[in-house]
Give the backbone structure.
Amino acid sequence: MESQRIILHIDMNAFFASVEQQSNPELRGQPIAVIGAAKRTVITTCSYEARAFGVKTGMNSWEARQKCPQLIFVVGNNRKYTYTSTQIFAIMREFTPLVEVFSIDEAFLDVTGCLSLFGSPERIAKLIKERIRGEFGLTCSVGIAPNKLLAKLASDMQKPDGLTVIDPHNIPQVLERVPIKDLCGIGAKMQQHLGRFGIKTCGELGRFPVEILKRNFGITGEKLHRMGLGLDSTPVVPDEEAEEVKSVGHSTTLERDITERGEILRHLLQLSEMVGRRARKYRVAGRTVTLTVRYADFTTFSRQESQSDHTNNSEEIYRASVKILEGIELSQAIRLLGVKISNLTQHTEQLPLFPAERKKALLAGAMDEVNNKFGDFAVTFGSLVGKESGSKVISPAWRPEGVRNFDVE
């Protein structure tokens, strides 16, 4: 029964901004906004002091400055955030092995089997909050509920530094007036679709005839009905038990919009090397290469091409990306580029039969060995020497271990 499970959702408060404030005492208590790169003006996140003035994630710097003239901009340090995140997740695993990393600053914990060791779920939540505050000076909000859907909803109810419990017996009352947009998994488009049926709250969604939902949304209609009732049977899945990764990719938001072909190609080469190196590290190879482009006006699209064989060679990934690019008639300056390989297979250690292919494999291995020892791009392609990269945006797929754990700057 779902009511027998006890799930915690732990969400760090203004994580990037809070880490920056702890790292630099002069920023504490100040309205700050973290941006992805010195020349980029979109806010990644902001402190609660800035939020009090109406500053929000995704806002342009000039708009944010209008709302908060004293706002301090800080260029993000993703290595600092991933390190801190990894340490925080380690604390959570001291209380239960069932920890599912949901993003760099949030996780689900199944503590059902841990109560005999630590007491009530509220006590476990308080102990974790105390550890995180004591060791890192950071706060988090915790939601406690009988499933992941409601635990995440609960953690959003009191921020910052909140602790909210949704008791199984009070679920209908809690959900009655909760907007459907507050449920994880219901985005803006689905809100519009449901709004056409007059559904705006979870209570209305739960009471709406499931047959009509299924007729209009297919199998998703049944899921929506269950969400409206606060039902969710998905388990907490630790990283080691997670589904096999289906792709390896990197994207970069450029420090400025670009149009010059040579500059575009340099970024594609760098991204291809990052993808190839990570794929080689975890011994996977992909048959399909995907190129993602985001224009200056945020229009985003992807194109892909399948290769004759699986590869994790950076040059081959790059050539495939360039070929895709040549088939696109660019209409605007480019803001973001991404390269990904998919249709993965486990890659054997056996060297290629033909000399030219063997040479490429040995060269890639040698470069990886040097870069692993001395840092990213210590050895790289000549066209990348001395070239600055765009800002490294941490992917929502980031995990502290495994193929999705990639180095960021």
The chain has a mean pLDDT of 86.
